[in-house]
Amino acid sequence: MKINTAAVIGAGTMGAAIAAQLANAGIPTLLLDIVLPDQKDRNFLARAGLERALKSRPAAFMDADNARLITVGNLEDDFEKLAGADWIVEAIIEKLDAKRDLWARVEQVAKPGAIISSNSSGIPMHLQIVGRSEEFQRRFVGAHFFNPPRYLHLMEVIPTPKTAPEVVEAFSAFGDVHLGKGIVVANDVPGFVANRIGVYGMIRTMHHMARSGLTPDVVDVLTGPAMGRPKSASFRTADLSGLDIIYHVGHDLDRATGGDEDFTLPEFLVKLVEEKKWLGDKTGSGFYKKTKENGKTVILTLNLNTYEYENKGKVRLASLEPIRNLPLNDRLKALYALSGPEGDFLRGVMHDGFWYSAKMAGVVSERITDIDNALKWGFGWEQGPFETMDVLGVQNVIAALEAEGRELPPLLSAMKHSGRSTFYHDGTVPDPQGGVTHYEAPFLILKDLKKDATKIVRSSQGASLLDVGDGVLLLEFHSKMNALGEDALRMVSVAHQTVQELGFAGLVVGNQGENFSAGANLALLLMNAQDGEFDEIDLAVRQFQKAITSLRFSPHPTVVAPFHLTLGGGCEMALHADHVQASAETYMGLVEVGVGLIPGGGGTKEMLLRFTDALLPGQPLMPALQRAFELIGTAKTSTSAQEARRLGFLRDSDEISMNRDRLIEDAKRKVLELAPGYVQPVMREDIRVMGEQGIAAIKAALYGMVEGGQISEYDREIGLQVARVLSGGALVNRNARVSEQYLLDLEREAFLTLSGKRKTQERIAHTLKTGKPLRN
């Protein structure tokens, strides 16, 4: 059941975005929609959907070139082309009759063995295929993506009673490995898993807000990052999703569940949708409204008593200040114990979520892990409801629910009588039928690995060495933003020694934090620069270069596994690996010029080396010099691993993992591939440089940019330092050849020179304070 080609029927926002993600995975995709009678272009809707996906922000395509894999068409002229698709996915209007009519047509042309699926979020899958043949029903399965499909990890796979088990297995594996999705197998019930529980929680949050007397902005402070949930929290999420969507989904679930699960909508939501027509971001007004005051964007909050918008400024809650920076588990315990209306509100929201999640166990899915994962992957929670109950103490939660007079769902009742204190324990979880099942993640989870002390080979404040099995050692950073300080760099050296002394096959550099690494420790650099400790900075840069270059010039293979922010020194680590196994969502860049510096850990040298090596025999050096200068001088950052490859941060031989959860395992596999017969590389001595001629060319270009107002005088000064390194210094011979070490020395000199400049120190201080660059 290999899926090499696909077709998407319906080119609306969701259908076009699904087609884009298929193209991101390298799958040629046919995108079809209806013919509009008043349009000369019979493919107008499909073409418009593709163009919308190309313009969407955040970007639907990992690289705009992927759009060439999508062929547009219409459901009249091109319907027969569906016969060439291994997978046909429907994303049309949410009307049962329309879907049934479509499937009747599809059955006539779909090739034997093709997987057929619906992206419906509300219409049960089994109802869509009434009247279809047994063979068609065997290969029909729900595939519910979350919007936007590129970024939200969850895909719910919803088999019907007629779906063949091998179809579910093969399709789930495809979604996991090739599309990069977190797969949850859902039962074919209204709302499936994530929306059933997530929308319930959203509606109950609104009711608890009204009961507590709190306001939307206060609730969003309580239910956002403080609880381990996205910054959009509750009411900002509602505005983003569309209040009409919540309104309709709530009504549908209320009808579908017979009204016994209390999806009753709060009066203020009904008024906003039915009377005010304020639907959130799509209409410009919802629980919040953006306006301009003195040229600045201001966010106003809706007063639900007067239905007027108010500028309340940034909300700060005194009760949260002492716990804001605590680890998540400690934060959750503190929130659960808060006093006053804020505490009452939070306990009400949490209790509703715990009770309803337990009630849905066995209804929406057969595994409680699916419920936790659906809410983490679909709604961006750091922890699911059962994981949170483990933190608070399951028996404590049960006692609190009973004290409120609630009837315990069967799962919680069984937990009460078993005396079991946590849902997750020694690789087992309770199942909804009252038994216990073994649970093992389908991929390596480092926090689980570290529960076995024998797997921790060495640990320090900023980094750890872990035995990830099969003779592979992992170097994991765990400082704030995984900044590369002295401690982390020292551990690089220790990692290499450990590989050799203990006989490991090789090294993986990676972690499972929020970002791979945001670069070097700027705060320490600024402190040394302001104190005039330039000998310290010189030593630090030497150590930094030694650690970075050791990733390539060691007697064993080293694979770097970057993901999300991979900036500055983090990028330089990847540039010097024997192999890079990158997450599809890797945002990679040499961004040092933004803080008044140049890449000093070999990044400047490496980009020059790569681009000169890419030249054809006899081709002049200037294109390589220009390409490297533009990349470094503009601090260009990739928006995906695919773009990083096009920019030159990744080589053609480097690989991309669509599913970040599999990144460490994929990197480990690559180490084991490289280890047999591995030969230690040596530093190059033959890098061609342009010398004075290259410096002069870039100097002239920089002068023109200053005169044109594109850059500042200090930007030019930084640019000249970059040019000097890329040109190999002031050499007279335009075709001189230099060594990697020579270029590293030039990098270090330029870095030291710039770190002593007042304007560079101002840039660093501003970035540390605001997170934004300063143009001075």
From TrEMBL:
3-hydroxyacyl-CoA dehydrogenase C-terminal domain residues: 191-289
Pfam families documented for this protein: 3HCDH, 3HCDH_N, ECH_1
Signal sequence, start to end: 1-19
SUPFAM superfamilies: 6-phosphogluconate dehydrogenase C-terminal domain-like (SSF48179), ClpP/crotonase (SSF52096), NAD(P)-binding Rossmann-fold domains (SSF51735)
Molecular function GO terms recorded: (3S)-3-hydroxyacyl-CoA dehydrogenase (NAD+) activity; NAD+ binding
Top-rank taxon: Bacteria
Keywords attached to this entry: Fatty acid metabolism, Lipid degradation, Lipid metabolism, NAD, Oxidoreductase, Signal
Reactions this protein catalyses: a (3S)-3-hydroxyacyl-CoA + NAD(+) = a 3-oxoacyl-CoA + NADH + H(+)
Gene Ontology biological process: fatty acid beta-oxidation
Lipid metabolism recorded as keyword: yes
Domain 3-hydroxyacyl-CoA dehydrogenase NAD binding: 6-188
InterPro entries: 3-OHacyl-CoA_DH_NAD-bd, 3HC_DH_C, 6-PGluconate_DH-like_C_sf, ClpP/crotonase-like_dom_sf, Enoyl-CoA_hydra/iso, NAD(P)-bd_dom_sf
Pathway the protein acts in: Lipid metabolism; fatty acid beta-oxidation
Stored PANTHER family: 3-HYDROXYACYL-COA DEHYDROGENASE FAMILY PROTEIN, 3-HYDROXYACYL-COA DEHYDROGENASE-RELATED
The protein's name: 3-hydroxyacyl-CoA dehydrogenase
